[in-house]
């Protein structure tokens, strides 16, 4: 239930705010966009500052409205005692990599059809990632999200793991997609309501009829 809740919140946020800032809710995503030249360093710095302030503010509100006997660790992402910091970095690297790879896939300008399902794809990725690794690292995927909780409970042990792992994973995923696996330009101009596959099929049909 918690995993689905996380995924649903991200999905709705991307759908609602994507037109404002591109739905930049995560420093790992922002790092990926920066390293591939999609945003400037100034814009990236402003995004990350806003993300961190928003996360701290959200965590403060959650703590304020939660009964004192139920606050606990306020959902902080903490390493399982059986997980070393190195393993934690590797797990969060993987989670950040998958998330940013999916995001770059659905915002690819040469795949316009993918934008329709972008919020759903991103939300499901967050939900599955959270479900798969919550017992190991708390499944952060988002350094700002981790910052908000630990700032409220003042428990900073291994917090660096949740910055290094997702951000490095996001950077590698962004570079791999942008320069190796991005979709090629469409061969035919697209009419609204027609998919690129349909346009290619129609184009081939015209070539055959002309022959």
UniProtKB/TrEMBL annotation:
Residues 189-211 are annotated as: Disordered. It is a multi-pass membrane protein. InterPro entries: Aquaporin-like, Aquaporin_transptr, MIP. The chain crosses the membrane at residues 44-66, 86-107, 160-180. It is found in: Membrane. GO terms for cellular component: plasma membrane. Residues 1-22 form the signal peptide. Belongs to the MIP/aquaporin (TC 1.A.8) family. This is Aquaporin AQPAe.a. It comes from Lygus hesperus (Western plant bug).
């Amino acid at each position: 239930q918690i995993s689905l809740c996380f995924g649903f919140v991200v999905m709705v946020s991307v759908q609602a705010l994507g037109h404002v800032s591109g739905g930049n809710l995560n420093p790992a995503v922002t790092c990926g966009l920066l390293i591939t030249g999609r945003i400037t360093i100034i814009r990236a710095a402003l995004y990350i500052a806003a993300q961190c302030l928003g996360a701290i503010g959200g965590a403060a509100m959650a703590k304020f409205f939660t009964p004192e006997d139920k606050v606990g660790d306020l959902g902080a992402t903490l390493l399982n005692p059986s997980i070393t910091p190195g393993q934690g970095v590797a797990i969060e690297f993987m989670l950040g990599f998958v998330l940013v790879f999916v995001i770059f896939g659905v915002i690819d300008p040469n795949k316009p059809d993918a934008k329709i399902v972008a919020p759903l794809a991103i939300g499901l990725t967050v939900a599955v990632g959270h479900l798969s690794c919550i017992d190991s690292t708390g499944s952060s995927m988002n350094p700002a999200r981790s910052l908000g909780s630990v700032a409220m409970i003042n428990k900073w042990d291994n917090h660096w793991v949740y910055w290094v792992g997702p951000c490095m994973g996001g950077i590698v995923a962004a570079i791999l997609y942008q320069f190796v696996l991005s979709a090629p330009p469409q061969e035919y101009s697209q009419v609204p309501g027609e998919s690129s596959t349909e346009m290619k099929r129609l184009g081939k049909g015209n070539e055959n009829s002309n022959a």
